[in-house]
Amino acid sequence: MLDILLRDQTTGKNILWANSEFGAEEIKFEQINLIEPRWKKIREHQKQRTRDRAEIFTPPEVCEIQNDLIADEKNWQDYIDAKYLEITCGEAPYLVNRYNAVTGEIIPINLRGGLLDRKLKLINNETKTFPDWINFTLRAVKSVYGYEFQGDNLFLARRNVFETVADFYNEKFSRKPNDDFLRQVAEIISWNIWQMDGLTYSPPFTDNANLFGGANCLIMDWKKNEPFEFAELLKGGHR
Ligand SMILES: C[S@@+](CC[C@H](N)C(=O)[O-])C[C@H]1O[C@@H](n2cnc3c(N)ncnc32)[C@H](O)[C@@H]1O
């Protein structure tokens, strides 16, 4: 599935490193083992990324407080479909909380408070049949979005969402999910957690990018099953 998690659906290529070491190079499959989370990076490297890209990650207790404030749907099925976007998502701690993004401490599944964690917890509690679980889980994954400039963060955000779904599957059914299901999950993630320069709405380093034209990033309208430009939403479009 890792090849799917490296795909950029706007460019059709792999996502780019977009950091000071590799610049605009694509992340190659065989380079995945070079990617490490911020908490593992040496202090000097962390500082440089803070200077370059304002990279500072949010601890789970802060994500938890903010996430508590935003769910107001009336029934659990509506809550599953409620759409959330983590802008400049880093390793996506507001969506999924597998570990403390600051310290690296592993968080047990029952204590995770990310927006997708909450949805999957509900699905595990409310669904009675396997097809229902699959259906609601795919809907939940389609409902959460994030974008990020730096490719290593983006890859980790994608992997965190992917692993979270596998964790909740295992929690519910006490076994590993099958490859077909995981491939569907990875495909959705490759659209919903995407690489974008939030200042231009285009992939990093894209020439002639502009706010509402040029090479804007594509995301998926899952109801119509067709891609559209993210920048359209900012013109007042609604999906
Ligand atoms: C303060 S961190 C927040 C990360 C995460 N949301 C969190 O709360 O832990 C900001 C993130 O924005 C990313 N970033 C910086 N400039 C960006 C840009 N122009 N477009 C998209 N992301 C950007 C950085 O790479 C970094 O991961």
Overview of the molecule:
Helix content is 41%, strand content 8%. The protein has 239 residues and is mostly helical. It is globular and about 50 Å long. It has one domain. The mean pLDDT is 93. It has 9 helices and 5 strands. The structure holds S-adenosylmethionine. Residues 53-58, 86, 88-90, 93, 101, 148-150, 153, 197-199 line the site of S-adenosylmethionine.
Give a nutshell description of this structure.
The chain contains nine helices and five strands; from the N terminus they run ααααβααβααβββα. It is mainly alpha-helical.
The shape is: globular
Please give the share of residues in helix.
Answer: 40-55%
* Helical run tally: 9
What percentage of amino acids are in beta strands?
Answer: 5-15%
Rg over C-alpha atoms, rounded to the nearest angstrom: 17 Å
Side by side, the strands of the main sheet go 1-2-3
pLDDT under 50 segments (min length 5)?
A: none
SSE order, as H and E?
HHHHEHHEHHEEEH
Averaging pLDDT over every residue, what do you get? 93
Distance between the termini: 29 Å
Structural class by SSE content: mainly alpha
Bound molecules: S-adenosylmethionine
Largest β-sheet summary = 3 strands, parallel
**Number of domain modules:** 1
Number of strands: 5
